[in-house]
Write a structure and sequence with these properties.
Layout lengths: L2 H11 L5 H4 L4 H14 L6 H11 L5 E2 L2 E5 L1 H12 L6 E4 L3 E4 L1 H15 L10 H15 L2 H7 L8 H7 L8 H17 L3 H13 L1 H4 L1
Antiparallel strand pairs: 1-2, 3-4
Helix pairs in contact: 3-4, 3-5, 3-6, 7-10, 10-11
Length: 213
């Protein structure tokens, strides 16, 4: 079979996972699994292929807000950024060259595979402690003036000061830290399936792009 035939056969063979199997597995671990599955199937794990496979396997996690029939490539991009960043380093590579699993990532991958396969029963034990932290910070976010304005339809009146308050940083904080905090909040919202919070954070990311880039 040609490479194109192998890839077509691979994508056609993908089946949606039952939500109960991965409900307590975070998006970064799911993306790690997708990268592994692509490589094991002879498909180069480039960004576009990872995005398509993630959507086909876990559509409830990797679909566009308001358009569940389409994949959210930005969400996949954020997960890949998390997995390659120095705090995790589960993956190496980049969107153009493709990605590979590191030794550190392989340990996390093996644990994730066991849960997705049913070898280890899915339970809250996997990330209960983390979820308590995530719930705490998302609830703090919901109490900010920026989130209130967005909820009331006044998102464009949010000030940069309110954005910094939202992200819990000072005026001298670097763009790198601002972006890191924003992505962390996005990760929390996605894991908790707080779609309205996620929509708000993506609005902030686009509307105040100059703060992060």
């Amino acid at each position: 079979m040609t490479n194109i035939s192998v890839e077509l056969a691979f994508f056609e063979s993908l089946k949606v996972f039952d939500k109960g199997v991965f409900s307590h597995i975070d998006n970064d671990r799911l993306i790690l699994y997708v990268v592994s599955l692509l490589g094991e199937s002879g498909v180069e794990p480039t960004f576009d292929k990872i995005a398509v496979a993630a959507f086909k396997l876990f559509p409830s996690r990797f679909s566009l807000i308001g358009f569940p029939q389409f994949p959210d490539a930005k969400r996949v991009h954020d997960c890949l950024w998390h997995c390659t960043y120095k705090t995790k380093m589960w993956l190496s590579g980049n969107p153009k060259s493709g990605f590979a699993i590191t030794e550190k990532g392989r340990y996390v991958l093996n644990e994730t595979k066991r849960r997705l396969s049913g070898e280890v029963e899915a339970s809250k034990e996997f990330d209960t402690k983390a979820r308590r932290k995530e719930v705490y910070f998302v609830e703090l976010l919901k109490k900010t003036s920026a989130f209130r304005k967005f909820t009331e339809g006044n998102g464009n009146s949010i000030s940069s000061i309110e954005i910094r308050e939202l992200l819990r940083v000072g005026n001298e904080t670097s763009k790198e830290i601002l972006k890191k905090n924003l992505l962390r909040y996005l990760e929390y919202a996605q894991k908790l399936e707080e779609r309205h919070v996620e929509e708000f954070l993506k609005f902030v990311q686009i509307r105040w792009e100059n703060l992060f880039e």
